[in-house]
Specification:
This protein has 341 residues and is mostly helical. The protein has helices at 3-32, 49-53, 58-86, 92-126, 128-135, 168-174, 194-224, 234-242, 246-260, 282-312, 316-319, 322-331; strands spanning 37-40, 43-46, 141-142, 146-153, 158-165, 180-181, 265-267, 271-272. The chain folds into two domains: 3-140 and 182-277; 286-334, no CATH class. Bound molecules: protoporphyrin IX containing FE (HEM).
Length: 341
């Protein structure tokens, strides 16, 4: 495949999946913050497609998810390039790819923290029980503390061994030192399972903070001195290779927050998940579940195998004979060879 065709196919896939993301996120956001409908005899009718599609949480979710995908890609390409450099199968293109990833990460990671903050404020307005679970806040409080770590206990309705910052939650969520935050006890039984939401949120935010630090470090190390030496960059290369799959960890954790946090509702405040449970035999359920697990395991193994191949294949410049190398040097200064990255 020529470089141009490769680029065009990548662009087509990116545009196609972004359109797909638009509609999936619009639907999902409607289930979180439904608008533009009327309910007659238990049936939802659309009154305004515009309001249904562009419902209140959709812009935040779309921005947060698209940015998450770009960040995931940035850390993936940096990670694979770092592997290549550590195994000494790198060429000039490897470092260009790593610099591209570093630039993306340095800009997009802080942007993600900012979008995430706005997203959280929107969630506080529409799904306060989800926010209370994310923050592990049980009682409605003015000047609520921010719990950094702790073990939420749903029976005792408290957090064990909590490490807190006084007034922190109020400050972050209401931008007011003494702002009031509704606690979980306010919502009776209509609260999500607290511990998975609480922990998933911490994993997502933790990975996000790591992405900011590693992204800035990588950009500083790779752009400041254009140092493409494996030995002097070894610690950075190690960190980047450890972060290769960090995007997926944060994305999965984020979706756990969003979907477990919506429980016990399938459509927030209107339709319970328990009301839409279908009457299927356990054999059907086991069969489809097993089918999914097999298919996804196959896809995962194939994907890792393809990445491994890319991470270990020697750069074309390393496999050239001295004559070929001299010819190539005459032809183009630093043009990356096809497939080198
Ligand atoms: C560090 C700061 C971050 C904050 C404050 C933040 C905030 C949030 C909030 C509040 C939600 C749930 C919203 C809701 O369900 O109503 C969410 C979900 C999500 N987050 Fe984050 N997030 C951060 C970092 C990240 C990172 C680094 C990624 C991935 C690279 C990520 C990916 C996601 C995804 C995929 C979802 C589910 C889709 C959605 O509801 O937007 N987040 N985030």
């Amino acid at each position: 495949m020529s470089n141009r065709l490769h680029l065009v196919s990548c662009a087509l896939v990116a545009v196609g999946t972004s359109f797909s993301a638009f509609w999936i996120l619009s639907l999902n956001s409607w289930m979180q913050t439904p608008t533009g409908f009327r309910l007659e005899d238990g049936v939802f009718f659309v009154d305004s497609w515009w309001e249904a599609i562009f419902n209140p949480s959709f812009p935040y979710r779309l921005a947060h998810m698209l940015n998450a995908s770009l960040l995931t890609a940035a850390f993936l390409i940096m990670g694979v390039s770092a592997w290549r450099a550590m195994r000494q199968v790198d060429g000039p293109a490897t470092w260009k790819v790593m610099r591209t990833g570093a630039l993306m990460a340095a800009v997009l990671a802080p942007l993600q923290v900012w979008i995430g903050d706005l997203h959280g404020l929107n969630t506080l307005e529409h799904q306060p029980a989800k926010i209370a679970a994310m923050e592990g806040i049980w009682e409605t409080e003015k000047g609520a503390p921010l719990t950094l770590f702790g073990f939420p206990d749903e029976e005792a309705k408290t957090n064990h061994m909590a490490i807190t910052i006084p007034h922190g939650a109020s400050l972050i969520l209401t931008h007011d030192w003494n702002g009031e935050i509704q606690g979980l006890n306010e919502f009776g039984d209509d609260i999500p399972p607290v511990a998975p939401v609480f922990w998933s949120f911490r994993i997502m935010v933790g990975v996000g903070m790591l992405m900011v630090m590693v992204g800035w470090w990588a950009a500083w190390r790779l752009f400041r001195r254009r140092d493409e030496n494996r030995d002097s960059q070894l610690w950075l290369l190690r960190a980047l290779s450890v972060m290769t799959f960090s995007g997926w960890v944060a994305v999965l954790a984020g979706w756990y927050v969003t979907e477990i946090g919506r429980q016990p509702w399938i459509v927030s405040g209107l339709l319970r998940t328990s009301e839409v449970v279908a009457d299927h035999s356990s054999a059907t359920l086991m069969g489809t579940l097993f089918g999914y697990v097999l298919l996804y395991a196959f896809l995962l193994v194939s994907y890792i195998a393809a990445l491994r191949y890319m991470a270990t294949k020697p750069a074309r410049s390393l496999t050239l004979t001295p004559q070929q190398r001299a010819m190539k040097a005459e032809q183009a200064d630093d043009e990356p060879a096809q497939g080198e990255a």
